Structure formats: C-alpha cells, structure tokens
Amino acid sequence: MEDETSVRVAMRIRPQSAPSELTCVEFVLALTPGHPQVVLGKDKAFTFDHVFDIESKQFVIYEQCLRDSLKDVFDGYNATVLAYGQTGSGKTYTRGLALISPCLQKKKELFHEQ
Question: What stretch or stretches form a coiled coil here (predicted)?
Fold first, then answer.
C-alpha cells in the first residue's frame, strides 16, 4: 500500500437529465483546468483527489480510483468504496450497473495476478 492517505475522495459529474433540460435548469458547476477542483456558482470551490467530468468512462474511474484499492485487499488491507449523493445523482450508474462486462474483465485481472 503506497498511498499514505487514509481517505481519498473522487467526484463524478453526471450529465443533466432530460427533465432538467426541459425546465431550463442552468449548469452551474465548472471544472478547474489542471486541478481536481470544481467551482459551484461563482465563489464556492471544492477540491477532491479526483474529479471526473461528464465524458469520463467507467474504466477510467476504475483504473484511477479502484484498481489499487482492490489489489490492496488481497495484500491484507481494508478498502471501502462508497457512492454518496442525492436521489438521481448517478450513484447506481457509477457503482457499475453499466459496468457489468468490464467489471467481470477486471475481476479476472485481479484473480489472475494473485
């Protein structure tokens, strides 16, 4: 386990849903180029360990956030992955229902390395 921090936080920005688009809801979240930071509105900045934009693919999130933690589990360390957010914010999607096939591939990768 190389990472010295006990908790890492990643944020994934999801696309607006169709009802939001229909009611003309303004997208007020901006990414800070070159930094894992988002700005909400005009003056509230939040920094994370990782920030994934609307275009981010599931496998990129896996590679950057989960792969090493899952390997550490096999070395005797504990790991927890938590998806947090309000209803409809994309937790289930990010957890992997859209990832079933790639997840199976990653599972094979993990078990073949042991």
Answer: none
Report whether 5 belongs to an annotated binding site.
no
> What are the φ and ψ backbone dihedral angles of 76, each rounded to 5 degrees?
95, 5
How confident is the model over 51-104, as pLDDT tens digits?
988 888 888 888 888 888 888 888 998 888 888 888 877 777 776 655 555 555
Q: Look at residue 1 and give its three-state secondary structure.
A: coil
Three-state SS across 56-67?
A: CCHHHHHHHHHH
Taking alpha carbons only, the member of 111, 91, 93, 12 closest to residue 52 is: 12
- 92 assigned ligand-binding residue: yes
Residue 96 counted as an annotated binding residue: no
Rounded-to-integer distance, Cα 7 and Cα 26, Å: 32
CA nearest neighbour of 93 among 33, 15, 18: 15
